[in-house]
Write a structure and sequence with these properties.
Blueprint: E1 7-13, E2 17-24, E3 31-40, H1 47-59, E4 70-75, E5 79-80, E6 83-85, E7 92-94, H2 95-102, E8 106-111, H3 112-118, E9 128-130, E10 146-153, E11 157-165, E12 168-173, H4 186-199, H5 210-223, H6 233-241, H7 245-269, E13 275-277, H8 281-284, H9 286-290, H10 294-299, H11 305-308, E14 313-316, H12 321-339
Parallel strand pairs: 1-4, 4-8, 10-13, 13-14
Antiparallel strand pairs: 1-2, 2-3, 5-6, 6-7, 9-14, 10-11, 11-12
Helix pairs in contact: 1-2, 3-12, 4-5, 5-7, 6-7
Length: 341
């Protein structure tokens, strides 16, 4: 990307919102946080249209007159051969088509949780809060070999891995949110039965995301023989804060299941160096996560429980972690290009 200038257009595209910003690839902290703007994806027919709107909406002003000709876009879906489909939105994304549409010479598409994984490299102490007794700090990143996992509930459930070996950083793109849900208690088995009747196969994403919180509440209501009527995730969290018993239980189940799934992710991937909890739901439910069964279920892994007790689980509070990861990718791509020319 070095032939396209020091500023790179960034995008973090989820099922609900599209966030744009610029990266300065020469800066120690490459994300220009003063350039971040957020739009509803429903307001645009395509990602290319949203990107054009950002550039016309003052997006290039932060580049100090320098033309922006390259981009790193993170999308909530599987990326294959420069193409992607947003899992929870009807956009179909083509890197060549968008590149031509907005006049870029380089446009890289990555999975959104590849970007979330790369964000670990730029997190500061103030960007994370430990859930449980094990802790992590940015200085840990300086170690030679590390394996981290990232899991985040938002509109859906994203999962990523960051492998650090010999000074190289490899983000692994996954769709781990769509792994089958494994109930761990009789109550969760009963919830699974209700959700299975509705969805057929039940993935982790059916419980651990914003809509998943509503699914849990509805299942608990059905078990109690009550029809809760239409609800949004905010209704459940507001009800829990107001002392509604069923809403409180839904939040407790959500946190416990989240912890169990995050712990399973460590066992599956060998992410013994830490799990980062990200996504739009985590900051909103931080207090609940800190005072719930999250960590108990995270650690409760039979003969591996002592090992799990040493694994940090860190809530990411940076407001734009996906864009931060895109900025790190842009900076590393620039450095790699310069090293080979």
């Amino acid at each position: 990307m070095s032939d396209t200038g020091q500023h790179v257009l960034l995008a973090d595209i989820g099922g609900t919102n599209a966030r744009f910003a610029l990266a300065d690839t020469t800066a120690r902290m490459p994300l220009r946080e003063d350039s971040v703007k957020k739009y509803a994806v429903a307001d645009f027919p395509s990602l290319g249209d949203a990107a054009q709107h950002y550039l016309a909406d003052g997006g290039t002003a932060w580049a100090s007159g320098e033309p922006v000709r390259s981009g790193v876009f993170a999308v909530a879906g599987r990326v294959e051969d420069g193409q992607a489909r947003i899992t929870n939105h009807p956009w179909v994304i083509s890197a060549p088509r968008i590149r031509e549409m907005i006049g870029f010479s380089v446009l890289r598409l990555v999975n959104d949780f590849a970007a979330q994984s790369m964000a670990i490299l730029a997190l500061r102490d103030s960007d994370v809060v430990a859930i449980g007794g094990a802790t992590w700090s940015p200085e840990t990143e300086a170690a030679a070999d590390r394996t981290y996992a990232v899991i985040g509930p938002g509109t859906g459930l994203g999962v990523g891995i960051l492998v650090v070996r010999d000074g190289h950083h490899w983000p692994l793109e996954t769709e781990g949110g769509h792994v089958s849900f494994p109930p761990g208690t009789p109550e969760e088995i009963a919830i699974l039965e209700r959700l299975s009747a509705q969805f057929g196969r039940v993935s982790n994403e059916r419980l651990v995301c914003g809509p998943g919180l509503v699914n849990i509440h509805r299942a608990l209501s059905e078990i109690a023989g009550v029809d809760p009527g239409p609800m949004q995730p905010a209704d459940v969290t507001a009800g829990a804060e107001a002392g509604d018993a069923r809403c409180m239980r839904a939040v407790d189940v959500f946190c416990a299941v989240f912890g169990a799934i995050a712990g399973d992710l460590v066992l599956t991937t060998g992410a013994w160096d830490g799990v980062f909890l990200t996504g739009g739901v985590v900051p909103k439910m931080l207090h609940a996560l800190q005072h719930s069964g999250f960590r108990q279920r995270f650690e409760h892994k039979g003969r591996f429980s002592p090992n799990m007790a040493r694994v940090p689980s860190m809530a990411v509070l940076h407001p734009h972690a996906g864009l931060l990861g895109c900025a790190v990718i842009a900076r590393q791509s620039t450095a790699t290009t310069m090293a080979t020319t």
